Amino acid sequence: MLKRLQLTTAGESHGPGLTAILTGLPAGLPVDREVIARDLARRQHGYGRGRRMMIERDEARVVGGVRDGMTLGSPVALWIRNLDWESWETIMAPWDADPHMAAKRRIHSPRPGHADLSGGMKYLRSDLRDVLERASARETTARVACGAFARMLLSALGVELRSGVRSLGSIGADRPVPAWEDVSQVDEASPLRAIWRDLEDEMVALVDRAKEERDTLGGAVTVVAHNVPPGLGSHVTWSEKLDGRLAQAVMSVPAVKAVEIGAALETAGGFGSAAHDPIHWDPGARAFRRPSNRAGGLEGGITNGEDVVITAYKKPISTLAKGMPSIDLDTMTSRTSQYERSDVTALPAAGVIAEAMVALVLADAVLEKLGGDSMDELLAHFEETRRLQDEWPDRFGPADGSQPEPATLSQDDDEDEPGGDAA
Ligand code: EPS
To answer: Ligand 1: residues whose CB is within 6 Å?
Structure first.
């Protein structure tokens, strides 16, 4: 779904490491390695993660596309080591794996909700590990590292992104749609990166309870992109609509089963008059203003200059320590699903991953609209587009400059229109 950028990742959860190749970035983008390191650390953080996160210290080694802190316009290539590889080498080696060890860790009783059964059937594997290793959320490390490059491109245009946990289980589900001010206050060091800090203790207690009950939890994370230029994406073709492109990217985050833009769930249940954001004109600032942002910054699949607000709803992790009713494929009899070390919840990380996906889609839409092989060209095109957009309202109004009577469209007027029912 990306149009100018292309992202490919490779690597298994317990393989040697992860590779990512990101193509399409312009030359001359300053690359701050601290931004990449910070996003990787943010993704690793969060209450409810399993022991694996104590083993890994994610670090992206840039092995292509960057020279002396600047992109070259060539593909950016990254390598991230799996420190856990040491314990899995005999099982996951590309050659000469130890058959005895591999058999010990073979998966033949699929976890309901996971890719185990559907992937095993599709790829005709007799060890479901062949599926779970790639279906694992470990892969999102590579996405977050590349998302940091997209974030840096966006920040050159003044766009910022933040996220947080909006609800965990049912805690927080009755709170309003978070705005930029809410996600900006998220304390990255807090246990769950909760948007509503007053609910954090209750959320932590629920994670403890789920762990004790050998169960798992889902919830919702909200990403807000601030200062997004108007005019990204387009209404003209279904595949260019930016809401659709964002939804696809965010839905691809592991365990996400629904994506909401703005206040979609709330507005779907009411009247149109309570759903849409009134449009005002501020003559001093020569800017359109909206007192609300229920549309989440997107109208007609195009950014309208308001903050882009996206919520991802994540199902509870499908690896339950207590298992779920399943089938042993070796005997085709009922059996509890096999357990693989996992997390009780990964919601705090999901927010960071969704941020990376939103950043990649927005950066892609920026490149689609503004083009340019270099950052210099991109920024020049950005300024010119801004100037044209600022001047655009002058194209309206009577040619002689007189003030027209305010126009109203009544139902009767509508019926007199060509093609109206009254014809
Ligand atoms: C995951 C299971 C756990 C998580 C892992 C995703 O890994 P392991 O089976 O090695 O304990 O920690 O997430 C990561 C490794 C990560 O970097 O996010 C799964 O089954 O999806």
So the answer is: 13, 50, 52-53, 56, 84, 136-138, 141, 319, 340-343
